[in-house]
Amino acid sequence: MFDIERVVNELGDLSRRLEPECCSGADAARLTEIAALGERFIVHIKAMYAQRAAETNAWRRRSHAATADQWLAETSGCSEGAAREVFATATRLEVLPDTAEEVRAGELSLAQAAQVSAGAMADPGAEQRLLRTAKRSGMRELRAEKERVVAAATDEIEARRRAKAERHLRTWTQGLATHGVFSGPTEDVAKILTALEPLTKARFEQARVAGEREAHDAYRFDAMVTLAETGGVSGVRPAPHAVRVRVDLPALVRGRTEPGEVCEIPGVGPVPVAHAEEILSHGLLQLVITDGVDVQTVVSNTRHVPSALKIAIAERDRTCKIRGCDCDRMLERHHTHDYADSHRTTYTELGNLCPKHHDLVTHKKYETIDNGDGTWDLRPPAHAPPGEAAA
After folding, report:
1. Does 92 share its domain with 125?
2. What is the pTM of this model?
3. Residue-number span of the structural domain to which 219 is assigned
């Protein structure tokens, strides 16, 4: 116990003596990674001892806080919600030894452990899958996978009723900006996002012609304003677009999901199987099932990518294929073999990259390396400056 105090005191002394401007860029990058590992250990230690302090009520003798959440929030300089999540994660780790060991070893951050443990408590059989996702993907994909696990293990009727009962749109103003947050049944939110999509693309094209470049969310906000002002382009309601639903065939036949199965609108989240059944008759549904089109056999002899292949790639590569990058916006298809050489467009030779990584491959001649687990790494060209890495 006293070793922890000694190490923290030494870290404090080190922090005060730091002179990062004296380091090379390569050393700075390496030390950043070492510090990140140290941060994982420190956060885990804090969580374990905070849990013990809460269990014994010892925190009451050190604070006038009303609750353990409030005490930890004050001690850590974080929100009560964040403190509450620390306690919840620590409690879940007590019954998930595999995840707890990954945290103790520094292989998993507490934030990652929060997602893994929440999913594993809903479906213990999903723990190893979530751990693999945590290691090869970013937080966004891990959170999405956790939500799939929880949705499959939750009673759909009750979950849908709760989502509808808790629906809301709240706003608050700070200075000259008004902020907002909303929540509702996923299938209803999907209707809003689908209506915004063509207007968002139109705004993006306008910005590109004008030489402007902003975040995707900024264009989506502009699209929402256009929709409110005109009801769409020139006052005409945008034409309905096909809604894609990813669902496992056994779940579709059964009428509900079971642990390990999915039924979701990509990019939005899980939906009840009943929603997929409800819109099947509308003719605007792209249904992706586990034993549908055998995309491995779809081959084109032109640059044109068949619709089935486009859908298959979008389903497989929901985020950038570069390991650790969880960007899921404005993804661009990349041929791993130059079409001018191969004259083929196949499922295995195509992958989705975010604009930044696609630019590195296309214009800066970085090479993609297949990791064999559905992700790629990037290898810089031989002429790249020493220490340069794919960002």
Report:
1. yes
2. 0.68
3. 185-230
